[in-house]
Amino acid sequence: MAAPVSGKITVHKLSNETLSSLDNAIRVPRYDRATLSPGIVHIGLGNFHRGHQAWYLHRLFDAGVDLDWAIVGAGVRAGDAAMRDRLLAQDCLTTLIELDPSGHRIEVTGSMIDFVPVEEDNGALIAQMADPAIRIVAMTVTEGGYYIAPADGAFDADHPDIQHDAANPDAPHTAFGAIIAALKARRDAGHGPFTCQSCDNLQGNGDALRQTVLGLANLSDPELGAWIEENVTFPNSMVDCIVPATGPNELALARSFGIDDAAPVTHESYRQWVIEDKFCAGRPQWERVGATITDDVHAFEAMKIRMLNAGHQVIANPGELLSIGTIAGCMADPSINALFMKLEREEIAPHVDPVPGMTPEAYIDLIETRFSNPEIIDTTRRVSFDGSSRHPGFLHPIIRDAIAKGTPIQGLALIEAIWARMCAGTREDGSVIEPNDPFWDDLTACAQEAKTRPAAWLEQEHLYGDIAENEAFVAAFTEWLDLLWSDGLRRAISRYTGA
């Protein structure tokens, strides 16, 4: 366990050359990075990937195995170029800082060895993925990045990005278009396919990736689409680790340990990765460093997405309305904590099956502990971002199950009403909530109308679909939203929890 360097601090710019100069308490790569060769292209080099998937591979290299599976980073957005510059300037190393109430643990990971240029036509990315040495193309592009219609989960073939890539398959703008172009090049050269691996918080993430890749390929080249369907695999997986955004405090924290890292990552002490064993071109031995390899990911991902990811929305939306800045702060608030515990136990857990080694009830206690960690400065704003993807992805399937089974829905309706109240754009103290969703303007306009006509919110068919047809849910939602506007959030929570 490392402690901030006391006295006069010598800060070293992170690089291969300075690894040996770091404090002895900081764990650095135990392998010779010069011996690594690429096997994975990962698209989306955000904090989560570097604190989660890249760490598993780093620890595998530490064990001296699978050194031909190193990561080449990639991005398809203009903003990814800045991350590329930061990481290349420090030899693609990343400082991980584990935040635990008992102290900090510091580790420098080195499983990433390069980052392809970020180009509008994705030429460099396509060429890298077409290299037969690459056997897995993985991605973290957020759960809202798969061109899925929220109401029915179908492929959104009419999206302008998809239409562009279908018309310009050799110069695509999306990661999916680039993947298809690379697979075409490999097929034509006789190199065989690579595995496409989603690492996003999305139930059935491999199935979602498969739907998007096949849907786009079939728009421009059905013959190629058929080849991909027959030869390429898309394993489902469940990923779990709380990884806050990096800002000035995190940069300063890294420097307090003597490391000048332009992109450090802080994270909790818990990680989980459950992976479907479906890889058409081989894979690293992730199970040797703690990953779970299974033929049935669904139960694991359902527990995590329905209880942890949905639970995040349960506390972040009211926390935003009450001007509580962090997730730990939300859990320390008695009203929000009571809301979380009652809703999880009575309205979410009944729709979650146990998994080996964990019951839904025990998982609730684990989540409460993780969310309450005061060392994790995970902002309420970050967690409440993109509700238009997170509510349909995490909460609405539970609502549909509850409606079908006739189980309680009052708390679920309350959370949807709280989200609608939040999207009206002001907190209860009168301060303005800055835009926090890709469709914020539309959500705000609808939320303002729902202030006097609550049903307007549920009439967003692309979000709620058939949920809006259930009279009991509509009645509960209407009652809660009216109460939120008339008596406030704490009164509404108190009525639900009885506290």
Automatic annotation (TrEMBL):
Keyword annotations: Oxidoreductase
Keyword Ion transport in record: no
Membrane-spanning ranges: none
Top-rank taxon: Bacteria
GO molecular function terms listed in the Swiss-Prot or TrEMBL record: oxidoreductase activity, acting on the CH-OH group of donors, NAD or NADP as acceptor
One Pfam family here: Mannitol_dh_C
Residues in Mannitol dehydrogenase C-terminal domain copies: 296-484
Residues of the Mannitol dehydrogenase N-terminal domain: 39-287
Keyword Oxidoreductase: yes
Signal peptide residues on this chain, from the entry's feature table: none
InterPro entries associated with the record: Mannitol_DH/Oxidoreductase (IPR050988), Mannitol_DH_C (IPR013118), Mannitol_DH_N (IPR013131)
Name this protein carries in UniProt: Mannitol dehydrogenase family protein
